[in-house]
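User: I'm writing a short report section on ligand binding and want a predicted complex to refer to. Could you take this sequence and zinc ion and write out the structure as tokens? A short remark afterwards would be nice.
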Amino acid sequence: MRRAFINGKIYMNSGQFAEAVLVEDGVITAVGRTSEIELIAGDAERVDLEGRTMLPGFNDSHCHFYSVGVSLTSLMMLGCTSIAQCIEEGRRFIERNQVAPGRLISGRGWNQDYFTDENRMLDRHDLDKISTEHPIVVRRACGHVASCNSLALERAGITTDTPVPDGGEIRRDAQGNLSGILTENAIALLDCLEEPPTDEEMERTLRAAMAYAASHGITSVHTNDVKNDNAERMLSLWNRLTERGESTVRAYHQCCFTNIEGLRSFIDAGYKTGQGSDMNRIGPIKLFIDGSLGARTAVTRQPYADDPRTTGVLCLTQAQLDELVRTAHESGFQVATHAIGDGGIDMVLKSYEQVIGQGPNTLRHAIIHCQITDMPLLERFKRSDITAQVQPIFLHYDMQIVEDRVGHDLAMTSYAFNTMDELGIHVAYGTDSPVEDLHTINNLHCAVNRQNLKRQPAEGFNPAECVTLEQAIDNYTIGSAYASFDEDKKGRIQPGYLADFCVLDRDIFAIDTSEIMDVRVDMTILGGRTVYTRA
Ligand SMILES: [Zn+2]
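Assistant: Sure. The structure tokens for the complex follow:
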């Protein structure tokens, strides 16, 4: 297949643009002026960009892509501004999907900080108002808290006598009755309610996520779908869609393990970073050291400013983390570890520094999130060349809580996206979707303007850490490509690179940065093939 994309404004590099690009068999073979490409394009199909701006396809460096599909096809409370609205959304979901009584309703996305009626978490009495005939489990936006209705508690066999799991809570109300709110490790008590999906349901779920990603100009994702117990099923799901030519996004699998036995059996099964094809590749071992800032489970070096009783919840000891990192490293696996608090980041850096030593970080070990930082921590990223996989869109919510949680001084050196770039740290942008929306343009807006999605505050939160648009695009394309060893074939529009593009409805480089949020993706192209066109 030969296609020539002509008459565009094609972003090649900061300040450098072309007009046209020639694609053959999924790969870029020439870039230049439209007149130059016309001379060599022959009978290639012409796609007239009509002056529009073309970027490399976006590459989300950390998301939970299958879960994106699940949330697209489940009860979504993201953006609800009251408990009453959550209840209404729940009722409508059941009505719209004609969910049979007895079937589990699962959802997520609520956040009590946005509620204007009552500033509290959803409890079972709220959810009983949605239905008493369906078990209902809805997770908070962060995923670290789950609320369930009375029927869900009953079906899961949770009573006031149920032993509380370590590292979790079964919360009670003032009278000592179950409130229906479970946190962290206690959430697993609800797993028994889930009915395993069929292969067909899983394909539908993944296709929903792919269509959504394409509508946002995403052509690659680093996705954390593979876990301890589902590697074979999840990888074969992706492979099936790829083989049928139905895949519209390239996947780099961050494979999540919580203990050494799980990791060893994955290694023994013969998996390794880099295995696979351009569509579907094994990525790093994904580990967790802490939780989230919103839930005060991120691990901090000092007690939380707004709750001095806690420094967060550690998922692994330093010794456990060291063993996992060393085992993965010695087997040739890249490692990417979730760390949000400065204490968690410090521990992960220590583990990495031990295996990297003085040498280069050839396996490109990375830290995902990197939110609460100070200058010495950031300098350690640079010194050992640790990639920072960050989510600028987290600012939308976190800017209103970060000072409360960690105090003003530490807040001012956190979410330090500009400092990371200035230090020359490898930075890769993503969204952690479905924690936040898989929304590329909003993510760019947050990086460049450091405003929330209501464009507040006007001057930006800690504006010294605003990044330029070019830098943000680069981090979101070539930066993410570096994190998967793909910087020679993804993230630039240059000969020899994969023909993964997105076309915008206006010139994002010419507008005021305050208008970035208004930009829409018109078209998404994967390997030269158009996989999305805006209606
Ligand atoms: Zn995540």
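A remark for your report: The chain has 18 helices and 24 strands. The pocket of zinc ion is lined by residues 62, 64, 224, 432 (CB under 6 Å).
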